[in-house]
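Form 12-C: Joint structure prediction
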Amino acid sequence: MARSRNVLESRNTMIKVGIVGGTGYTGVELLRLLVLHPEVEIAAITSRQEAGRAVADIFPNLRGHLDLVFSEPDVERLAACDVVFFATPHGVAQTSVPALLERGVKIIDLSADFRIRSVPLWERWYGQPHGCPELVKEAVYGLPEWNREHIREARLIACPGCYPTSVLLGFLPLLEAGIVDTGDLIASAASGVSGAGRQASIPNLLAEASDSFKAYGVSGHRHLPEIEQGLADIAGGEVALTFVPHLLPIIRGIHSTLYATLTDADVDLQALYEQRYRDEPFVDVLPAGEYPQTRSVRGSNYVRIAVQRPQNRRKVVVMVVEDNLVKGASGQAVQSMNILFGLPETLGLDAPALLP
Amino acid sequence: MARSRNVLESRNTMIKVGIVGGTGYTGVELLRLLVLHPEVEIAAITSRQEAGRAVADIFPNLRGHLDLVFSEPDVERLAACDVVFFATPHGVAQTSVPALLERGVKIIDLSADFRIRSVPLWERWYGQPHGCPELVKEAVYGLPEWNREHIREARLIACPGCYPTSVLLGFLPLLEAGIVDTGDLIASAASGVSGAGRQASIPNLLAEASDSFKAYGVSGHRHLPEIEQGLADIAGGEVALTFVPHLLPIIRGIHSTLYATLTDADVDLQALYEQRYRDEPFVDVLPAGEYPQTRSVRGSNYVRIAVQRPQNRRKVVVMVVEDNLVKGASGQAVQSMNILFGLPETLGLDAPALLP
Amino acid sequence: MARSRNVLESRNTMIKVGIVGGTGYTGVELLRLLVLHPEVEIAAITSRQEAGRAVADIFPNLRGHLDLVFSEPDVERLAACDVVFFATPHGVAQTSVPALLERGVKIIDLSADFRIRSVPLWERWYGQPHGCPELVKEAVYGLPEWNREHIREARLIACPGCYPTSVLLGFLPLLEAGIVDTGDLIASAASGVSGAGRQASIPNLLAEASDSFKAYGVSGHRHLPEIEQGLADIAGGEVALTFVPHLLPIIRGIHSTLYATLTDADVDLQALYEQRYRDEPFVDVLPAGEYPQTRSVRGSNYVRIAVQRPQNRRKVVVMVVEDNLVKGASGQAVQSMNILFGLPETLGLDAPALLP
Amino acid sequence: MARSRNVLESRNTMIKVGIVGGTGYTGVELLRLLVLHPEVEIAAITSRQEAGRAVADIFPNLRGHLDLVFSEPDVERLAACDVVFFATPHGVAQTSVPALLERGVKIIDLSADFRIRSVPLWERWYGQPHGCPELVKEAVYGLPEWNREHIREARLIACPGCYPTSVLLGFLPLLEAGIVDTGDLIASAASGVSGAGRQASIPNLLAEASDSFKAYGVSGHRHLPEIEQGLADIAGGEVALTFVPHLLPIIRGIHSTLYATLTDADVDLQALYEQRYRDEPFVDVLPAGEYPQTRSVRGSNYVRIAVQRPQNRRKVVVMVVEDNLVKGASGQAVQSMNILFGLPETLGLDAPALLP
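Section 2 - Result
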C-alpha cells in the first residue's frame, strides 16, 4: 500500500500534538480524528506498556495513516508539543500536568482528574487523594456549548465525561429557562460498551454483554457528582438528579432519556430548544415528533436532541444521542483544541455519521 | 433424522390445543413451549396466508418436533379443541371468540382485544370499533401474580402485553404498600426487536436497528392505557404514568427501569419485594445490589427484579427483566393455561434461561 | 421466588453426576441441560477459584434451579459420583482421571486430553508432555453417530471438539461412500465467540469482536490433527484437510462450509445424506435447496446439514450447523452419558432450538 | 444547529454530480463520501418514490450536511451534471444511460447493467433482455487496481460488485503469476446485511438475521459470472470458481476466504502480494501471520489482504476484507470518478476506518 499523503506532509506552522495514554479507545479515537486534521501534526504518543511498538500494530485501521511508535511518557518529548491530550485513567494526568504547564504546554485532559471543583468531593468518589489540588480551580470545564469563552483562554481543559455531556446538553435549555423542578431530575441513560474502555474483562466479553441489557451503578456512578455540579452551575442553584446508566450491546453511542417536571406549563418546548441551539455547530434539535437514534451520530461529533411532553401532562421527556467516543470524549477534546488555537471550531470534525 | 418421541405419542387425556395465527413470533414461541409440554397435544394451527404449508418449513427449529401443517382458520376444527390461543394482531380474536366460547372452548387471547375494560378507551387507542364489546367485561386479565384466582375460573383470558407485564410486576409491591406518589410514576423501558413482530419493515432490518438505540412512541404507545388501568387497579385509585419505550438491538428481552417517589421513607424496600414474591414461581427478587440482565431470562418464563434507592433519597428505582416472548407473551399464556386446567403452574415452563 | 421442584426432588436411583471445572461455558451449559434431566442428580461441581460461592451467583440463569456451591476439586467427593464430566482446559483431566477410574467412576472428558490417539502428535500440538499416556488408547471418541457401540462400553469418553463434530458429520457420508478426493478436503468454518471460553481477553470484548469477522489459526489450529484423525478413521486411509476457522460476532453456533472434489460424478448426494442419517435422532438433513442457519440449532443438540453441487460441477459443498456449546460440547457429552447408562439417547436433550 | 460550511460553499470549477436512485445504501454512502469531497458539488439526487422529500429526512446522519430534496429522475436536470452515478437496481441504468452519454455526461454505474461483456450471459443470469446491449462493449470495468488506464479514458464505467472486488483483488497476484490451478478456485465469502439493500424483508430483520450465520446462493449467485469473467481476464484463460456467499450478522463488511492449489511450490507468497500492491493506495497487504478483520476497513475505502500456506502444503489461503458499501460500491465509484477527472485518486477517500 502506498502511504497516504497525510503521513508524509508536515508544515512548521502546524499544531504539535502529544497524546499520553494512546492504547485505549479515546486514544485511538483521537488519532483517527487527528490524522485527518489539516492543522495538526501528531508529534508523540505514549504508552508505558507498549513503548516501542507501532501504533498501527494495535489499531489496524491506522495502517498507512500513521507511522508513529508508542514512546515512554517522557516529559521532554511532551514539552516540545503545543498541546498534550491525556487519554488516561483518572489519577495519571494529576501527576504530569504541572510540569507540562510550566513548560508552556496547553493541556486537554480527557480523564476525570480536573472535572470536579470540590477536591473533597473528587476524593470521596474516586477513593484517593487528589495529586494536584492547586490546579483544580484553574481548570476549565470543556463543554463548548456552555463554556466556550473560558475554553478560549484556558491553559488546562477538563473534558466532560461522556454521560455528563449528553445529560447537560439535554437539560440545559430547561434549566436556563428555569421552568422545571430542579429537585426532581431523572437521567435514564444507556451507553455502548466502548465506554467501559479497552480492558480485558469477563462482563464485557461479546459472549456476556451482547444480546442483553442491564442497568449498573445505580447506587452511585462517578459521573453523578460531575453531572450534578454542571446542572447546578447552569440552574444557578442546587439540583437533585437520579442517574441510572445502562449497558447497551453496541460499540458506540449514548442515549440519555431525561425526565423533568414542568413548573411552567405554557412554554413552547420545541421553540425553546431550537432557539437555544440555533448557532451551535454540533447540536441538532430534531423536528417535533422525530426520535434521535445513536447510529445517526456514530463516528461523528454531533449531538441530536428531541423534546416531548407526553399526553400534554407536566412531565417533559428529552432524548439526547451522542457518540460517547467523539462528542463524549475525543471529538469534544478536538473541538476544545480548535477553540483554544483560534481555528474554526468544526475543523476536522465535520464528517457525517457512518450510517448504515 | 429420526422423529422425536414427542411427535408420536399422544394420550387421550391430553389437553387439545389450537393456535390461531401461528406465523408470528408469539405463535412460534407457543409451539416451542407446547411441543415439550407433557399434557398438551397441538391439534390445530391456523394461518390464512400459509394454509397447507408445513409449520417446520417456516420455523426450522421445529423440524422433527412437529408434523403439523398450517390450516385455514376453521371454526369446526378449532371447536374440537379444549383451548384456543389467539396469537393474532388486534381485531382478529374479537370476531372469532364468541362462536368458540359458545362451543365450550376456553380462550387465551395474546392480543390486545380484551385487555382494556373501557370499550371507548380501547376504540380510541386502537382506532377501530370493538367487534365484541359484550365479552370485554367477562375477560380476565391474565397476570397470575395479581389475578391467579380469577384465571382459574375464566372462560376468556386476556394475556397482558409485554411491557405491561414488566411494569405492573415492578410497581406492584410499591402500590400495594401505598408508599409512593401515584401521580408521578415513570417507566423507562426497552424491548428487543421481536416485540415488533415478524413483519417485513425497513426500520427493523438488521442494517437499520442493530448497533443503535432509540426511544419511540413517547407521544402515545398503546400499552400506556393498559398499564395505567393495571396500576390503578393495584393502587385502588387514579395513577399517572410517563411511559417511554425504547428499541434494543437484541432479539428478545424487555428491561423496564421504573421510577417512583417514596411517600414513606422508612420502608425496607428489599424486604418488601422479597416478601411479596416469596411464593411466586416465576418472579425472582435479586439480592440487594445485584442488577438484572435480560439474558438471565432469555427463553425462560422468569422475571427478575431489583430495587434500589440511590443516595438514600426519595426516589426508588426498580429494574425488571423478562423475555418479551415468554413471560411477556406465550409463556405467560401457557402459565394461564396450566392454572385454568388445574395443572402445576410451572409445567412445561421450568427450563432455565439460555446463557450465555 | 418459590424453588422449582427439580431442586428439591432426588431419587436414589438417579445418576449421581460430578462436574469438574464448572465456571466456563461448557460447565454452565452442562448444568443448564442437567437440571432438567429426569434421571440425573448433580452431586458436585468443582472450581478451585470459586470454591464456596453459589453457582447461581455466577450464572444468574440458574437462580432457583440449583442450590449447589462450588467445591474444591476433591477426589473423595467426586469418587462418590457415578460419572464425572471434565469441563476443564486441556491438561487437567489427565491428572485426575486415573484415580477416579480406579474408584469405578465413569469419565466424560470435554477437553482435548484424550481425543488424539497419537501421544507424540498430542504433545506437539498442545506443547506439553501428556500426563496420562497409558489411558489414551482406551479412551473412546464420543461421536455417537460414528462410534455409538464403543461409547456404550466405555469407561473413559473423549468428547469431540466443537469444530471436529461439525466437520466430521459433514464429510462422513462422502468418505464412507468413497466418492471424493481425500487428498483435497477443505473446511471453511465459523464459530461464535463462546467457543473461545469465558476468559477475560481484549480481542473477545464486545467492542472488539462485534460488528466484525476474521479468520484465525490458519497456520495451525489444534482441532486440525483431531479432525484429520477422525476423517482418516472414516475414510480408512490418509486424508489432507485445509482447515480455516473464523470468528463470528454471535454467542453460539458453528457453521462449517465443506468443499470436496467428487471422484464419482453420478452419485445422488441428497439421497446419500438422507439415507446415512435417517435413524439419527440429532442429525437433520435439510430438503434439497435449503440452507442451514446457526439459529435453527441455538441452544439445542441438533445438527442440520445441507449438501449442494453448484453448477453441477465436480465440487461438492456441504453446510453444517451446530450449537458449539451443545452438540459441539455439553449436549454431546450428555448424549454419550445417556448411551453409557442405557437411557434413551435423547433424554433431556429434545428441546427445540430457541428461535427467534 | 448551524449549517456546516460545506453546505454553503460551492465553486464554479467543481464537478457537478448527479445521483440516480439515492434512497438505497449505496446512494446514502455516495452522499456521505461526496459531501466531504473538496471538488464535488452534488447537483441532483433522484428518487421516483421520495421525490419532494428532503434527503436528510430519510438519512438522519446527513442532517446539516446536505440541503437537497429528492427529485424526479429528469434527464434535463441530470444532463446538466458532469457525471451521474447510478445507484439503482439492475435494469434501470440501461434505459437512461444512452441519453445522458449523448449529452456528454460521464456515467458511473454501480449496478450490474454493464459489468458482463456477454449479453446472452447477462440475460440468462438476470432473467430479462438487456435494454442497451450496444453500450456493453464500451463500458469499462471500474476496478482501478486492474484497469486504471482504461478508467481514465472511459465515458461509461461499470463498477464491480462487492463480492467480485474482494475476490478479484485476492486472486489477482496468484493469477498474474500463473502459479495456481485455475480449474479449481474456491471463494468462501461472507457479507454484512447492508449488501442485501434497504428493502423491507423478513429474512433480513434484526430478529431473523442477527445472532445467526448461513450460506446462501450456492446453487448460483449473480456475482459468479462476473467474478469468473474477471478471473479469466486476469488469468488469460478459462477458470472455474466455486463461490459460496454467506450472510454475516453485521451491517458492513465482506470477508472473502480464497482457496487455490499451487502449481509452483517455490514461490514466496508474501513477497508476491507485497510487490503487486506496493503502489496501490487502497490495498494493504498485512504482515505475514496477521489476519484481516472487517472492522479494520469499516467505513473506509481500504482493502486488507493476508496470504498463508497452511502446513506448507499445496493449498494457498488468501483472506480479503473490504467495506462492501465503500470499496465494494460507492467508495470505488468515487475512486473511479477521481481517476476520470484527473484528481488525486485518494481525494475524499482517505479517512481511516471507524474502529472500534
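Section 3 - Comments
The first helix of chain A runs from residue 5 to 8. Chain A is about 30% helix and 20% strand.
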